[in-house]
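#data-curation
PF: Archiving a pair of folding outputs for the training set. Convention for this channel: one message per protein, sequence first, C-alpha cells after, nothing in between. First:
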Amino acid sequence: MPGKLPAPLEHQIQAAYVEWTLLNTARFPALALGFAVPNAARRSYRLAARMKKEGLRSGVPDFVLPAARGKYTGLMIEFKRPGEKPTQSQKDYMGLAETEGWLCVVCTTTEAAVNLTRDYLLEPSWRRQSAADAAPDTPPSARR
C-alpha cells in the first residue's frame, strides 16, 4: 500500500490558483487586477537591497486583488502548505491591512483560495459615489 502523498509546495498551490484566475477573467473581470508579490523569491543581496529601496515590504501576502466588494477594500491571500503558519511579519501586515478594510486570508489549498475568491467576487461591487452622482437632496457632507 503506497504511503501518504506529500503536501503540495506553497508554489504549487499558488501557481494552480493563479492559473484559475487566468482562466476565469472572462467570468470575473476584476481578476485581471490581481497580482503576486514576490517576497519569498531567492535573490542576491544586491537585488534584495535594490528591491527594498523600491518598496518591497516584508510580510505582504502572496496574492493581492485590489477589487472592492461588500465591506472590503480588497482581498489578500497568503498561501501556506498544510500545517504551516504565517510568520509574525505576515500576521502584522495582514492585521494592519485588515484595519484598513482589506480581507486577508491564509489558504493552504488551491480549492480554498478559489472558493474564497469566487465567493468574494460574487459580493456586490462597492464603488464610491461621486458628488455629481449623489441624490440632489443629499447634504454636501454626505456626498463624500
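PF: Second:
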Amino acid sequence: MLEHAPNAIGVDEAGRGPLAGPVVVAAVLLPDSFDGAGLNDSKKLAPARRAEQETRIKAHALWAVSEADPAEIDRKNILWATMAAMERAVAALPEGWGPILIDGDRVPRGLASRGRAIVKGDGKIACIAAASILAKTHRDRLMCELALLYPEYGFERHFGYPTPEHLVALEKYGPCPIHRRSFAPICRESLFSAGEWDAGIDFRNGVAVVRETRDETVAGSLSEPPND
C-alpha cells in the first residue's frame, strides 16, 4: 500500500518522451477515506487496471488535467512546457489545500512555495500515483483518437513514442500536425516543407483540459472534503 499524504495534491505527467502529441499533467487530491489499494505508478498497471483506478479516482477525488500541446512544447522546450502544465493543473483546483507533491526532481517555479519534488513518487505516494494514472489514461485515449485522424502512424499502438514502427512511418510520410518539430529526428530539415506544421491544431473538445491557448477547466469534485 502506498503512503497517503493527507490534504496533499499529487502531480504527475505523461508523455514527455514521445515525438508526437501533448504532454499531459494531472493533479489529484485524494480524500482521507479513499482506499489506496491498487494505486501504483501507472506504467506498472495493465490498461484494464488503470481504467478501473481512473474511474475510482474521478468518482471520489478532486482532480484536474492539463495539456501542453506540441506548439507550446516547441516554443518552451519539453521541460518548461511540462512545468507550465503542472502549474495550470494545480491552479485548476480550489485553493486552501496542503503541500503539492510532484513526481520527479523539479518543482515548477510557480509552485515553489508549496511544492516538493519526490523522485519516483508515483510508486511511493498515493496521490502522485493517482495523478500518474489520470495523466496516462487521458493521454492514451487522446492518442487513440488522433490515430483516427492520422492512421498511417500507428499512434494507437505506440502513443507517439519513437518506436521502430513510428520512425519508419516518419521516414515514409513525414511529420503530421501533431508531431513535435523541435524533437529529433523530426527537426531534421529534410522532414519539413512549407505548410506541414499547423501549430494551432485543436486536439480535442473533451473535458478536464487546461491549455495555454484555451481557458477551459473541468475538474472532479470530492465526494467528501478532507479533514481540516
